């Protein structure tokens, strides 16, 4: 998702932290791994296109059921969740469930290249099409600070069973999640999971992996 939040996105960057804040710069040692990730993403995007509609619907429903069964979800007062686009996991039923249960729900909004905020929504009416038609919070929605989040539900193009996540190349989540409190779970359809995810030093490993078959801790 993060690649599409803004039009301009870089794929070959490494993070350097200064006083808890991230800045991005090119590093020669990361270029080969960045190219490996680019090719890996290209292959996986083709695999995403080949997934059947019925499989995706069934997998997405099962993933939602797995998430709502998690103790981390049940006790969370504030949840950060991505809004899945057409070729991603449909998270809207999950968002609506959290709202129905009275949880505070935040969704991402791109504010600069590589930078996103989490804005609170109280219903689908708080969302509007943003870049590339992706739903994002409207202007005027309240800010949720990363320290307020009890559970983050994170997108990926692919991930490994041990939580190595391959995103879309913008670095939005890697940067934001370093500041986020609470548990973190990456959602991934099982057919897109891989053991050999290429990672760089700045890539975060996610503690919980949720697919249609269960929760990997």
Give the helices and strands, then pairings.
Elements: H1 2-5, E1 14-18, E2 21-25, H2 31-50, H3 53-69, H4 71-75, E3 78-81, H5 92-100, E4 104-112, E5 115-121, E6 127-129, E7 135-137, E8 143-144, E9 151-154, E10 158-159, E11 165-166, H6 172-177, E12 183-187, E13 208-211, E14 214-216
Parallel strand pairs: 3-4, 3-9, 9-12, 12-13
Antiparallel strand pairs: 1-2, 4-5, 5-8, 6-7, 10-11, 13-14
Strand element count: 14
Strand content: 25-35%
Which spans have pLDDT < 50 for at least 5 consecutive residues?
1-27
Helical/strand content category: alpha/beta
> If helices are DSSP runs of H or I spanning 4 or more residues, what is the number of helices?
6
As a percent range, the share of helical residues equals 25-40%
Strand order of the largest sheet: 8-5-4-3-9-12-13-14
Task: Please compute the radius of gyration using only Cα atoms.
Answer: 16 Å
Alpha-carbon distance between the termini? 23 Å
Shape: globular
Mean pLDDT level: 86
Question: Tell me about the biggest sheet?
Answer: 8 strands, mixed
Question: What order do the SSEs take from the amino end to the carboxyl end, as H and E?
Answer: HEEHHHEHEEEEEEEEHEEE
